Amino acid sequence: MSKKGKHNPLLLLILLMVVLVVSYIGITVYQSKESAKKSSDSSDSAEKTILKADTDKADSLSIKTANASITFVKSNKKWICKEESDRPLNQDTISSMVSTFSSIAATQTVVDKAEDLTEYGLDQPELTATLKLSDGTTEGILVGMASPSDSSSYYAKLEGKDAIYLVSSSVYTSLSQSLSSLTKVKSTPSLSDSNVKSLEVTKGSSSVIKLSYHEDQSDSDYDKTWTMDQPYGKEVAADTTNVSSFISNFTDLNYSENVDYTGKELKKYGLDQPKATVKIVYTKSKKEKTFTLLVGNQSGDYYYVQDSNSKYIYKLSSSTVENMISVDPFEYLNKTMTSLEVGDVKSIAATVSDKNITVKSSKKIKSIFNKINALEAVKAASKKVGSKMFTVKLNAKSSQTMVVYQYDDSYAAVDTGKGVLLLVDVRDVNAIQALLK
């Protein structure tokens, strides 16, 4: 047999081993490249710090938006506005803005270099913020539009760099505050029904309501802790619970913005002729003080106001202002018919049609008392009353008297000694009169 047609087994084995080794090396190299690629893709979407500054060395902060360009400089450890050095700034808020530069992280690297910045709103940035340090170095960031797929992220790039990133919207909101929102707001006095002595709301020259505090006169015909001096032209008893609720509207006045620290633009904000004035007399450290709030024009969800603590003009929410000046005095009247309990009443003395009546029966006293106590005042009398219908005196340790007058077909007027005549349903009054006969 010829050796020419035979294959060498050893040679074939060696060739097979070479093929296997080459294949293994190829697969290993491919897997290594794929792993590196995946790692690279993962790092592009992982959060990473793109700006870090020693903010303790900050000398100035420049903010440029579509509406304004402002620079804050540090002088004697205090931030001042370069353009308006006399503007009183909220130092804590400025410091908070500066601290943003201590670490700014990107949630994603969008592209290493953009061919068209317009795509990201960075050709004309919404915000450009630059921090200058005491060693002369600067750190800056440009913020463009919000991400179309995630409104909580904004496109951004660092000054002098090409890469485009996504950063949290908090970077934008913390650095894009208006100058007026950075202007100092003075605190208002701490007010409550425990330290307020009087409160008056006026519109124009008319007093809408005036409330005054008095020491408790428990031996009088009614609790005179609070009285209403206006608008009824005389002192009348006020509802202590409702007055306390009304005063709570003044306990926490949170001005949203200082729009004019000079106080010179009174006419612009409607404060040259205020729509309303609130005057509060209160005590602090046993000393009597006065707080006055002027209410000007309304602008959207706010009113412009100015208080007696300073010349500053502020924004105050419309809801807060309306709760203070849109007052229905009747709501704060003491409308109770009696402060007695039925068990306090020993007898009832009444006069009906010039006839004197005395009731001593506990059962009848209870019936009459319950109907008196259930009378519901719907409004105050606004015209002269008619003739007297009857008088009822509840005899107790501290007796109380009620006089009832004719008023119209629907109402009777009741005088309980509180200083104002209250209108009640005439049918309820007729029911009491029937029991007295």
Shape: elongated
Oligomer: single chain
Instruction: State the distance separating the first and last CA atoms.
Output: 152 Å
* Rg, alpha carbons: 40 Å
Helical residues, percent: 10-25%
- Numbering strands along the chain, what is their spatial order in the largest sheet? 1-5-9-8-7-6-2-3-4
Estimated share of beta-strand residues: 35-45%
Structural class: alpha+beta
The number of helices is 7
Total strands: 25
Mean model confidence by pLDDT: 89
Main sheet overview: 9 strands, antiparallel
Spans where pLDDT lies below 50 across 5 or more residues:
1-5, 32-43, 218-223
Describe the protein.
It is a single chain. With 437 residues, the protein is an alpha+beta fold. It has helices spanning 9-45, 91-99, 169-175, 240-247, 318-325, 362-373, 426-436; strands spanning 48-51, 58-65, 69-75, 78-81, 104-111, 127-133, 138-147, 150-158, 164-168, 196-203, 206-213, 226-230, 236-237, 257-260, 276-284, 287-299, 302-307, 313-317, 347-352, 355-359, 379-380, 388-395, 400-406, 411-415, 422-425. It has a 9-stranded antiparallel beta sheet with strand order 1-5-9-8-7-6-2-3-4. A hairpin with a 2-residue loop joins strand 19 and strand 20 (355-359). The termini are far apart.
Short précis:
By secondary structure, the protein is an alpha+beta fold. It is built from seven helices and 25 strands.
